């Protein structure tokens, strides 16, 4: 990883066998740094052959109408933000959707909620909190040729009609006993952008 880091910011990885970034290269609690496309691009440079060439090739050639990114861990955030910019640049007409625990934490801990989409500038829609029903609602709206409407757990980028105001976001915690078990066998795994097939599994709320 130290050798790989020479393609971006030498010594940027905190450990020799992981993707954690050191605090010296980026402060992941800084709105200014997370909003800096040049810094994000430099930190992502070790993975540029995949992120900027291989990753967007399939959705661009297939004409994806919706692309979703799940940001689960804090260490994924800088790379995911750059990934979002690359995808939006290659597929400007696609609806770029982001969710996941780290995306929710950005909203939760951001003092000035109006700056949320400064950080997620390339993102069209963000699901904050639980996304089971919200994700389905977004896809149904897209299937009708419409933009998602502001609803529980959903924030729209201002360029898509959102406001970014905290008081307009309602959070919904669903009754998990009423939600059907996911039919994983029906998921179109060939459409997933991950190099390896995997399934998120959460046995309960929280960790």
From TrEMBL:
Keywords: Iron, Iron-sulfur, Metal-binding, S-adenosyl-L-methionine
Cofactor annotation: [4Fe-4S] cluster
One term of GO molecular function: iron-sulfur cluster binding
Keyword Membrane: no
Annotated B12-binding domain residues: 53-149
PANTHER family the UniProt entry points to: ANAEROBIC MAGNESIUM-PROTOPORPHYRIN IX MONOMETHYL ESTER CYCLASE-RELATED (PTHR43409)
Name recorded for this polypeptide: B12-binding domain-containing protein
Taxonomic path: Bacteria, Bacillati, Actinomycetota, Actinomycetes, Kitasatosporales
């Amino acid at each position: 990883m130290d050798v790989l880091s020479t393609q971006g910011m030498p010594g940027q990885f905190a450990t020799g066998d992981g993707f954690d970034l050191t605090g010296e290269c980026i402060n992941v609690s800084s709105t200014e740094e997370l909003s800096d496309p040049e810094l994000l691009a430099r930190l992502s440079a070790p993975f540029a052959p995949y992120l900027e060439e291989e990753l967007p090739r399939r959705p661009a050639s297939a004409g994806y109408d919706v692309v979703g990114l799940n940001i689960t861990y804090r260490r994924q955030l800088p790379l995911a933000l750059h990934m979002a910019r690359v995808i939006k640049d290659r597929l400007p007409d696609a609806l770029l959707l982001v969710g996941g625990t780290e995306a929710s934490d950005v909203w939760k801990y951001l003092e000035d909620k109006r700056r949320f989409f400064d950080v997620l500038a390339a993102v069209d829609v963000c699901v904050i909190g639980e996304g089971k029903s919200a994700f389905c609602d977004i896809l149904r709206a897209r299937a009708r040729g419409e933009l998602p409407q502001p609803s529980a757990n959903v924030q729209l980028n201002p360029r898509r009609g959102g406001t970014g105001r905290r008081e307009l976001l309602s959070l919904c915690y669903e009754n998990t006993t009423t939600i059907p078990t996911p039919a994983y066998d029906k998921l179109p795994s060939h459409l997933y952008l991950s190099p390896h097939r995997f399934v998120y599994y959460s046995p309960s709320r929280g960790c």
